[in-house]
Design a protein that fits this description.
two-stranded antiparallel sheet, 4 strands, 13% strand, alpha+beta, 181 residues
C-alpha cells in the first residue's frame, strides 16, 4: 500500500533507558487537634484570608450581573436614542420603564402575547408581525435582577425579555407622547 521502505529499528532506544525519578520523601501528617498554644499564633504570622464570594441573597445586593434581553430591533434603536437623549444608562432606563408601568405590567404582558384563534377544532396562536430581534446586554445589580424575575412570575410573562419588551414599549410610547406635547 505504501512505496516507502520501512526504517530500521534503532537499537539504542529502550523503554528503560531513562531512569525513574527518585521516590518522594514521606511527610508526617499534622495532628488534626493542635494544642492551644499553636492555635493562638501572633497576628503577624497568620496569612490574611481572601474574601469569599457572596452566597446569600442578602449579600448579593451589591453585586452586578450581566443579563441579555432579546427585543425587537426597532424598539432597541428607539431605546438607545432615548437613553442618549436623556443621558440615562440602559439599566436605569429599563428600571424606569418597569417602575413606571409596574401596576399595568400584567395587562401589558397580555397585550404583547399573540391572541389565540379557533377554527372550531383547534386553538392556535396567531403570530404577530415578525420583527428582527436584537440583543440588549446590560449590567444590573443582582437584587434588581431578582426583582425583575419576581415580576416575570407575578405578571405571567413568558420570559424576562417578554416583560421588559412590554414595559419598554409602553414607556417609550408614553415618553414620546409626552415630548410631543
Amino acid at each position: 500500500m505504501n512505496d516507502r521502505t520501512p526504517l530500521a529499528p534503532i537499537t539504542q532506544l529502550k523503554r528503560d533507558a531513562i531512569p525513574k525519578p527518585p521516590p518522594r520523601p514521606v511527610r508526617p501528617v499534622p495532628d488534626p487537634a493542635p494544642e492551644a498554644a499553636e492555635v493562638e499564633a501572633p497576628a503577624a504570622q497568620q496569612r490574611p484570608r481572601s474574601p469569599r464570594p457572596a452566597a446569600t441573597k442578602q449579600d448579593s445586593t451589591g453585586q452586578v450581573r450581566p443579563i441579555s434581553l432579546s427585543v425587537p430591533a426597532p424598539l432597541l434603536e428607539e431605546f438607545k436614542r432615548f437613553a442618549k437623549r436623556t443621558e440615562t444608562s440602559h439599566a436605569n432606563l429599563l428600571m424606569d420603564a418597569i417602575a413606571a408601568h409596574h401596576d399595568d405590567l400584567t395587562d401589558l404582558v397580555v397585550q404583547a402575547r399573540p391572541a389565540p384563534t379557533s377554527d372550531g377544532l383547534f386553538v392556535r396562536d396567531t403570530p404577530r408581525k415578525a420583527e428582527p430581534l436584537s440583543t440588549l446586554s446590560i449590567r444590573i445589580r443582582a437584587a434588581n435582577v431578582e426583582a425583575i424575575d419576581r415580576l416575570v412570575d407575578t405578571s405571567g410573562a413568558a420570559s424576562r425579555s417578554h416583560l421588559c419588551t412590554a414595559a419598554m414599549t409602553a414607556y417609550l410610547g408614553h415618553a414620546a407622547r409626552g415630548s410631543e406635547a
